[in-house]
């Protein structure tokens, strides 16, 4: 055969081989690979969207966007995209590139303190390949980035590094799909997975589930609960991770649909149970979801609520009592239905939060009898009455943990009572008293306008539910965060707090759990239509014939339960005025000026609200028509000059005691028939009271505390008998009352006050001073006062200097420092409506002007409010608005203040 023919044949063979190799590579590249199979098994979350620009367009039209757009991650991403747009051929290119494209994003924990993301992007056309190639080339030419190419296990990895901050972005291509991540470690892990031939989706349980075909769904969201504890471990302190691990063991994974509304993001779908031995699912398998009736007794100030719906609570116990059929087994088995652990709002990060455990029982009487068997007999301080309820102390340590498992630890001692068909457990009797009072007053979730949307949109039944009120839970979140994450949380506090409600629920549905996540954002768009701008707008004024001579007092009109304002004019007529429409509800002509506050309490045969107040020498009680109740008024003496009326209800039974103090230091206490009580007819003290007398109950004993302006503090029993250790002399002048922090004994019950000279003093009920701390006093004329908020849950300290006022928190942190033109006396008011909804009011007595400041010490409105007396404030949580009532000359003014 001629050599020429041989050469031709060899050439044809080479060409065929090259063609076959090229064809096989082309075929391999065009072979479609599910992006899900590239995701490593340790992904915590995987999000799949088929049109990211459409999602972004919708997001930008919602209330969420204003907050989301300020997140550091979003700001960095936006900056990076802007740079890429400038490098490429225009912003529309990236948008067009992502339109109608299925893209995946997965999140992975990289260690004890880090996590990172991987992006999976298909590149399906020649134009898209050209766009990516041109973009990468232009990035290298721009001088902002440098490009490094390396081989790893047969794949070419491209690392793009920013020249200024060394931020890294690594990517490689596989079957016309780009895998991109800031973490080279994750990119290499995916290559190793490919080379092992283990291309299996972590979401293989949901291979036939795809919510993206629905028009109002923007993403599929896969959650791997086996790795959720690893992610939360990045943020939380180690002592919380045991509870996280147990709760995460209910389900193995979830596939959820993501939807977006104006001010809420919610995900719904199904979860597969975790069937391994010892999981939470193994304990509650087969239990039906229970209706969330607990909303009827949860207090408005609840911060975090863990709700469980179970057929029987005893299944939660990790190690049931031995021997089988022990007493604790029987007691635990008597609880069935709902179990709720509620943490209340904490006012600082140093104090352990108050907590309440609600446990439903089918037979409250029988369960109560069994509980009483744990502590037979009654000793002083173990039983007390609170209205219709009996509160008992059980000294069995960690009783809730023994009954319901390790999630319910932290009860050094246990107080319990019965409320409806729930047994309530607390570790602090003051918490129990406050809760019972709030439920009685209707301050519960089911009656809260702010909670209504969350409750309506969440599942009505569940087996496991977690509810978080972000503003109320803020200090709890800070307390639970690792020190490394606290700084970041504080830095982003204004953003996080905008997302004010969160819920997560699992409800049994055949062999899986219906799952619902709901994240609500503070509603703003509708509010802004009410007030055009943030600040103050005088909405309404109500004219009177005579000058008003009192602070406006906020009350309720009994006839229709509407908001009402009580004021008095110079003709000595007391009026009840509708707060919303300004109508005159009632009036009462008095003989003298009212002294101190107008109080409203249920009284009389009808048990409806009545108005209680003092004049210069008399105590009054009038009904809804302004008529005196039977036997009233009580006249204490023609020559007296009373300062105010204080009402005590020792056992919360409505059997009131009326306490009145005068300008000479005499303290009278009467019953509701006008009889002066033994020891109080009157109690003659050696100085004028610096604040209203205070009643507390500790270890079953009633204590009346009296603070005098001369620095003496007294503690009396109900018959006027002094307690041992009292009086104590602080050796300083006082103009402040006491802030109580009650404990289980007299020695563990602490009271704080501040002297006029700025010394913060804490003492206990044995009369021992436990702490003295001098605050900075920049001027010898500086004076200090402790200012509690109306609910008595927190306080601030006000320092008045000539022409200047400074406010300090309980921890001594400076909250506000403001200079004024005049040196006239200033009066400070402090209103706290939960979370960051705080309002500081500084009233100048000379110019008769009130200045309003928010929690950031920023003034609300350009101009102060004209007012002759301190103001009264009402808060609307739904619209985030403060309504300020003030009196000025002949006007009752209603001013609306929009919160930020």
TrEMBL record:
Q: Which residues cross the membrane?
A: 6-23
- Keyword Transmembrane assigned to the entry: answer is yes
Q: Which UniProt keywords apply?
A: Membrane, Transmembrane, Transmembrane helix
Question: What domain of life?
Answer: Bacteria
What protein name does the entry list?
DUF3352 domain-containing protein
List the taxonomic lineage.
Bacteria, Pseudomonadati, Bacteroidota, Cytophagia, Cytophagales
């Amino acid at each position: 055969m001629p050599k020429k023919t041989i050469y031709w044949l060899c050439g044809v063979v080479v060409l065929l081989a090259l063609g076959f190799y090229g064809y096989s590579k082309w075929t391999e590249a065009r072979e479609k690979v599910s992006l899900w199979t590239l995701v490593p098994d340790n992904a915590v979350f995987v999000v799949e969207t088929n049109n990211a620009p459409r999602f972004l367009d919708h997001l930008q039209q919602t209330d969420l966007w204003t907050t989301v757009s300020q997140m550091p991650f979003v700001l960095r991403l936006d900056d990076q995209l802007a740079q890429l747009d400038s490098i490429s051929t225009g912003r529309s290119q990236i948008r067009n590139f992502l339109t109608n494209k299925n893209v995946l994003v997965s999140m992975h924990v990289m260690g004890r303190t880090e996590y990172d993301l991987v992006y999976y992007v298909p590149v399906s056309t020649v134009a898209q390949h050209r766009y990516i190639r041109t973009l990468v080339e232009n990035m290298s030419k721009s001088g902002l980035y440098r490009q490094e190419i390396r081989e790893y296990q047969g794949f070419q990895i491209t690392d793009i590094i920013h020249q200024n901050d060394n931020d890294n972005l690594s990517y490689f291509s596989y079957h016309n799909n780009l895998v991109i991540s800031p973490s080279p470690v994750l990119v290499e892990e995916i290559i190793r997975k490919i080379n092992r031939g283990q291309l299996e989706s972590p979401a293989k349980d949901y291979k036939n589930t795809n919510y993206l075909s629905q028009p109002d769904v923007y993403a599929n969201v896969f959650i791997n609960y086996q790795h959720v504890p690893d992610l939360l471990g990045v943020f939380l302190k180690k002592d919380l991770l045991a509870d996280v691990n147990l709760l995460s063991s209910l389900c193995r994974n979830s596939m959820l649909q993501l939807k977006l509304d104006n001010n809420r993001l919610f995900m719904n779908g199904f979860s597969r149970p975790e069937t391994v031995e010892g999981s939470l699912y193994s304990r509650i398998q087969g239990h039906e979801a229970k209706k969330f009736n607990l909303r009827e007794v949860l207090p408005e100030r609840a911060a975090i609520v863990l709700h469980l719906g179970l057929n029987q609570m005893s299944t939660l116990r990790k190690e049931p009592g031995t021997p089988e059929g022990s007493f604790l087994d029987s007691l635990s088995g008597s609880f069935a239905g709902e179990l709720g652990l509620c943490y209340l709002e904490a006012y600082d990060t140093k104090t352990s939060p108050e907590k309440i455990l609600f446990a439903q029982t089918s037979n409250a009487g029988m369960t109560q009898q069994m509980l009483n068997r744990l502590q037979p007999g009654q000793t002083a301080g173990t039983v007390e009455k609170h209205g219709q309820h009996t509160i008992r102390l059980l000294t069995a340590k960690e009783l809730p943990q023994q009954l319901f498992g390790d999630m319910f630890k932290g009860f050094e001692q246990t107080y319990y009572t019965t409320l409806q068909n729930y047994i309530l457990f607390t570790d602090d009797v003051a918490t129990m008293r406050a809760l019972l009072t709030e439920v009685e007053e209707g301050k519960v979730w089911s009656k809260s306008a702010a909670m209504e949307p969350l409750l309506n949109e969440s599942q009505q039944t569940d087996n496991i539910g977690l509810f978080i009120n972000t503003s109320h839970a803020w200090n709890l979140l800070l307390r639970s965060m690792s020190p490394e994450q606290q700084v970041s949380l504080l830095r982003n506090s204004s953003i996080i707090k905008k997302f004010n409600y969160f819920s997560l629920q699992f409800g049994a549905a055949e062999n899986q759990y219906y799952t619902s996540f709901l994240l609500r954002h503070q509603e703003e768009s509708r509010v802004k239509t009410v007030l055009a701008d943030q600040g103050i707008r005088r909405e309404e004024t109500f004219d009177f014939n005579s000058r008003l001579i009192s602070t406006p007092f906020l009350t309720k009109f009994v006839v229709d339960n509407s908001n009402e304002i009580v004021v008095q004019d110079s003709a000595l007529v007391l009026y009840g005025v509708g707060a919303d429409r300004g109508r005159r509800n009632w009036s009462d002509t008095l003989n003298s000026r009212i002294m101190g506050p107008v109080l409203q309490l249920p009284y009389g045969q009808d048990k409806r609200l009545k108005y209680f107040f003092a004049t210069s020498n008399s105590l009054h009680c009038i009904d809804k028509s302004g008529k005196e109740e039977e036997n009233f008024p009580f006249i204490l003496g023609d020559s007296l000059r009373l300062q105010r009326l204080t009402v005590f209800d020792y056992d919360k039974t409505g059997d009131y005691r009326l306490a009145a103090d005068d300008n000479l230091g005499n303290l009278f206490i009467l019953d509701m028939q006008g009889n002066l009580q033994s020891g109080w007819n009157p109690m003659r003290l050696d100085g004028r009271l610096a604040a209203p007398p205070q009643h507390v109950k500790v270890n079953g004993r009633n204590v009346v505390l009296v603070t005098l302006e001369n620095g003496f503090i007294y503690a009396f029993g109900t018959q006027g008998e002094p307690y041992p250790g009292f009086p104590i002399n602080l050796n300083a002048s006082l103009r402040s009352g006491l802030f109580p922090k009650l404990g289980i004994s007299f020695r563990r019950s602490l009271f704080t006050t501040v002297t006029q000279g700025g010394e913060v003093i804490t003492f206990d009920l044995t009369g021992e001073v436990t702490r003295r701390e001098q605050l900075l006093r920049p001027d010898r004329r500086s004076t200090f006062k402790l200012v509690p908020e109306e609910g008595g849950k927190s306080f601030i300290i006000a320092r008045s200097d000539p022409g200047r006022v400074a406010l300090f928190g309980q921890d001594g942190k400076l909250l506000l420092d403001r200079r004024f033109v005049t040196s006239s006396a200033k009066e400070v008011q402090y209103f706290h409506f939960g979370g960051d909804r705080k309002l500081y009011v500084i009233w100048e007595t000379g110019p008769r002007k009130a200045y309003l400041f928010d929690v950031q010490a920023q003034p609300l409105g350009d101009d102060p409010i004209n007012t002759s007396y301190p103001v009264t404030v009402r808060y609307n949580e739904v619209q985030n608005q403060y309504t300020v009532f003030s009196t000025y000359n002949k006007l009752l003014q209603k001013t609306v203040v929009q919160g930020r």
